[in-house]
What does this fold into?
Amino acid sequence: MSTANMTRAERRQARRIRRFDNPWLNPKLIWGAGLLLSIIFIGIVGRFIWDLDLVFTGSSPLKLPPLGFENLRGQLGVMAHPIGTDGGGRDMLAMIIIGAPNTLFVGLLASLIGMSIGIFLGFSAGFLGGRIDDTIRVSADVMITIPPLLILVVFQSAFGDVTLTMMALLIAGFVWQSPTRLIRAQVLSMKQSGYVQMAQLSGASTTHIMFREMMPNLVPYLFGSFIASVTTSIVTAVGLEVLGLGPQRIPTLGRTIYEAINAGALIQNLWWWWGIPTLLLGVIFIGLLLINLGLDEVSNPRLRRLS
Amino acid sequence: MLDDVTTDKPVLTLKDLSIEFPTPAGVVQAVKALSLDIHKGRRVGFIGESGSGKTTTALAVMQMLAEPGRVSGGTIDLGGTNIIELSEEEMRQARLSRVAYIPQGAMNSLNPVMRVEPQMWDGIIAHEGHLERGELKRRSDAALASVGLPLHTADLYPHELSGGMKQRVCIAMGIILNPELIIADEPTSALDVVTQRQVMQTLKAIQTDIGSGLMLIGHDMGLMAQTVDELAVLKDGELVEHGTVQQILQAPAHSYTKDLISSVPLVGGESFLNPDARAEAPKRASSEPLLRFENVRKDYGSVTALHPMSFTLHGDTPQIISIVGQSGSGKSTMGSIMLGFNPPSEGRVLFEGQDVTGMNAAQSLDFRKNVQAVFQDPYACFNPFYRVNHALKFPYKQFGLATSEAATQRAMEEACEAVGLDPDLVLQRYPHQLSGGQRQRLIVARALMLSPKLLIADEPVSMVDASLRASILSNIYDLKDKYGISILYITHDLATAYHVSDYVMVLFKGHVVEAGPPKEVIGAPQHPYTKLLIDSIPWPDLERSWGDGRTDWDPTKLEAEAARAEAVYRGAVPGFDLTKETPHG
It folds into this structure.
């Protein structure tokens, strides 16, 4: 049947079936990825078309509102600063262009490192067993019970000013434990499975069994776990920044919120100062959530519905 | 035709029942225009392979079809009530009180954190409201007594019961409200033959007692013949034959029914194999025996799964050695010890004179190449990530057998053809696109390609549809007959062991209780345990009194007797020496 003589309802049905057959055409996944990519897009394109020197204090008039709004002093928003300026005369748009990708970067890097540690420890624990397993399992359990923010506050205060990478490294020390437990459990159950025994009978080496037989089947779990830990990492990073810790000279969304609160932006009704970074954080979290839900449907066909 | 047997009004009437499952690939007709009556006091068997629609029919009667399945036509009439028109609440009232369902994995249907008694009370309370404790107790005790369980079972948790006891508890729960119809969905498929016989006896006795109709779903023609009055044969959702069990067994009309009957191997019956080639074993470089057990013993905690055992398999003439026993007899433990997956607690396993547990890399690769296995579960043996040819190609390359890509491809195709598979059709598929039988054949093809010296087949056909068992077993037999591979066949099925093997060892609680050529051990058993096992196998033979509800048949007592009896060792076969165990007990 050609597309031309199909009714609207038939076309919609065909689209649903295509979506069912190719799970990656999942609307949640596409929307979530779209939201995150738009943040990265702002960061990249902004660097070419906007003057980034405007992030420095005093480069512009103070507390200007976004275009079409008026601040308490009766000043109108201007084209030169389309989403306003903060209490130190820094351009909000320039801060977003640099800050939003920075926040995402800390989350991704911390979670990448955390996942790598998790995969390594999870496989070691599940595969080798015995005392190695006991050690890894107990330390992961202990780490799960410790609230990360508490320790990080102490660490960061001791370090003083840190770089973004350094902060990501510190956070990574607190996001490896859940992937470790998850992968260990999966490896333990897979180790008993028929195809792993078959691979052993085929004379496969341990590395072959780990990476060629088990790993491909773990990919959906790894993806899901990765996205979840990106969320945790960003929450932790923003938490630290809002407390005034973390990088002191590099704009991030959390740091902007900290400065807004510190300068009394809430009382002075400078809503754009704290509101816009909060909105962007919301977009990031919703994007991550949608990706996670979408991945769930990809890896678990039972959640996919025809209608 | 059947009405002269009983004049009662049927308890269940299915009329033109059709059930469909809408899927992305189109609507699947699971049951097509099925019409059937079940009369009061009659036992009707539904037999067919997996996917033939028998469980779907039962679930439709219970109004418990899984989404998105739906009844697309016809009526289900339960003693005058049209079930399809009942509301959810009315259906809830009807379940258990009018139609009881005993599910396949009854052992998993019990709540693990509740004692047996309150679980039995739940059903009464849900239908009759809160009754006096004394009344509830009286009724649950009566139900337990009727399935032959001691009354103290009521105070136990499910994990404290054996599989057979759990299944009997489920039967007691099913009949507690005296339903008009009992539906039993493969109630014994997870049980040993001995327990199966006991559970089926219980079910028959109690069904006769309360006079309800019984719908027994299964795939085992032997079990059906020994249990039911009428038989309904289903294939691809269609009722292909229906009649009394005598009619169907003596004069099956449909070719599929004939296949089902002939696929049940009988002890002493005609062989389904055609031994013709009698190949020699491959020449071996080593003069040491192929496999040797030296006082091998295995303990799991304080439980001894395998008592010290010694045997030598020379491997100069190919042999099929069967190890038979119930679950828990230690037969699978033996298999995993031989494969080196499970180190023995005591003693040594020698492969060509080399201890299996202490091998260097090169020896280990040689051992792996020469000792291969076929496992029970053909669904788990393929990595879902790869196409099925990965399972054949990878070991072939790993053992250095592959000279070129084209040679590997040719070897794979030849192996597939040897086991009756079309290589173009299967090799490029993913495992989930193949049936259980096709996958198990591929595993046999894999063993053939690698041409090991020893193959360990651990229950290779117990999860395959009945009609395919004989042909897969003859594929395995051909490995010995045509390619000279020695095989250790581990099974609970004495009838297949009888046909396939050259030597049989009967394992009971980790001891060899009887050993010898199959014609003697299984054909004329001497040890009480072997006799018990053979008595428990259901055959499609109507003359035999198997599960007639006699209560004097007590497997517990017979097993206790068997534990005291001396092991019986009979004739030997060349190339296999079993060292006699010192008497135990």
Summary: Chain B is about 35% helix and 25% strand. Residues 193-210 of chain B form the longest helix (18 residues).
